[in-house]
Amino acid sequence: MVSQTGSTRKETRPxxxxxxxxxxxxxxxxxxxxxxxxxxxxxxxxxxDVGKFSKRHPGGSRVISHYVGQDATDAFIAFHNDKSLVxxxxxxxxxxxxxxxxxxxxxxxxKALLEDFRELRCSVQKMGLLRPNCTFFxxxxxxxxxxxxxxxxxxxYFGISFVPFVVGVVFFTIAQIQMAFxxxxxxHCSVFRxxxxxxxxxxxxxxxxxxxxxxxxxxxxxxxxxxxxxxxKDPDLNMHPLLFSLGKTLSVELxxxxxxxxxYNYQHKYFILLAPIAFLTFLQLYTFYFTIKxxxxxxxFLIVAFNIRVCLMYIPLMGFNNFMIYYWLxxxxxxxxxxxxxxxxxxxxxxxxxxxxxxxxxxLHATCNVNQSLFNDWFTGHLNFQIEHHLFPTMPRHNYCKxxxxxxxxxDKHGIExxxxxxxxxxxxxxxxxxxxxxxxxEAYLHG
Length: 448
Hints:
Layout (H helix, E strand, L loop, with lengths): L5 H6 L8 E3 L1 H6 L10 E4 L2 E4 L11 H5 L7 H7 L3 H9 L2 E5 L12 H16 L7 H25 L3 H26 L7 H16 L3 H13 L3 E2 L16 H9 L10 H27 L3 H47 L8 E2 L5 H8 L2 E2 L3 H6 L6 H6 L8 H14 L6 E2 L1 H25 L1
Parallel strand pairs: 1-4, 5-6, 7-8
Antiparallel strand pairs: 2-3, 3-4
Helix pairs in contact: 6-17, 7-8, 8-9, 8-13, 9-13, 11-18, 12-13, 12-18
């Protein structure tokens, strides 16, 4: 018998093997916004109350809250490699299961697509594509460490004349962006099989070698993967509407409300300069706010130590003024590189509010690929395989090219477009998309 009221449910919560049965309608209304603000979600037909646990969730409180009132089965599988460890946490959160007459997922989700994707995931596991290659990641680690040291040796040995200064900046920029890609791998637990080793090395790379908090990155990036291009759930869209107007739906909505924080009809022109400057400024300031507010004292100490170390390494060689130019020019180039690589797969794609689509549709509608080549793989940290990365976020990047034909076959079978383009086309599509969004905003602003 399916429970009908929240008050009865609280008094008769299941014990032992006697689990209460729920309908999807009941799950839907317990989305954290109703009376009592209970947060329920479904994993493999089991119903869990994650309201109190969300604040203790290792992946962050917000990422788990993005799925309350919904089926989270495929997201749960995608994010967690060590299922036995996670299920220990789940046991205490279990409050019931779906009634026998209820489907395993909501009616708006593509059941056939999900079934085929789950079969594909089983095949991926059997093929060993979720297992990391230690040699590959060691070479990645070695190459950016060599570049980082070379940037200092260049200035130390050749001085600060124009050529060694520029070469040093280039080496430092490349080392920092490749560190960013590597810590991204670590944040997804795709370098080591044990999550704790990934987390430990991520702190070393992100905090000690880059000077930014690893916990901040994980907090935001997990949300991005949970609901990519879903406004108010994907933090990568937080630049809307303060700096940019993104996507047709959001741009028209903004225009009709007669809101204008920036001249959005020119955003495709000021994106090139403003986006990296805004992100760099925000991150430098927010780093300290985030670590202090969340009492991440170890990370704060390591970040301060990074800044002291870099100053002590370079200022004696080039003086304070030259160091400021050297350091901030490198950071600007790094963030420019990062912005273009990270946004080429998302800004040109569909942007909207969360409509609770199935895992596969959600990821495919928000991502696209850039054609594979040795240069593209290196230049983007293998984020040219954004589709595969989003479908299998814990997969080591060296296996994306192996699973790509299988994903493409899945898309062909279900009539879903598998987008892949050249690197230059991907970059130009960012500007074209921003131009179109700006035009939609202007039309709605003037005539909506």
